[in-house]
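Feature request disguised as a bug: please show the residue count (146) next to Major facilitator superfamily (MFS) profile domain-containing protein in the output. Example input:
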Amino acid sequence: MSVRVLSSVADVFGAVGPAAQEAAHVLVEPVGAYAMTAGRLWSVVGALVGLAGVVVGGLALARSVRRVGHGGRRGAVVALVAGLAGAGVGGMVVAAAEGGPGTGYGIVGGYVALVVGVVAMVLGALVVLIARRTARPGVAGARRTI
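Example output, currently without the count:
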């Protein structure tokens, strides 16, 4: 509701003018720069989950290039899932935001979570493709897994 609507409703019901205006002002007061709102919290959670996916995906990619162990397939799956979760949370924050940057809805963090989540998914998919390529028997230069 806007300030004018709240003010006019308060005047119609006979409320004191300054008190009603103060109550309406409190309802539309801007959020502080360092206040942790729900939107900001969810965008931080999404960005951290996506960042964990990027770290795990990078480590899995390094392992698959070195060809040590199982080629980093488990890390690839973790990176894909964490990236999907981070991008999903970031997308929900961006979709639910009703204002731009600085309004407290966490839209900037939501976009960061989207980008970091997509990067994690790309790293995970790259590791899966490398693991699939090297695990095929009969391909020249491919190593065999036991």
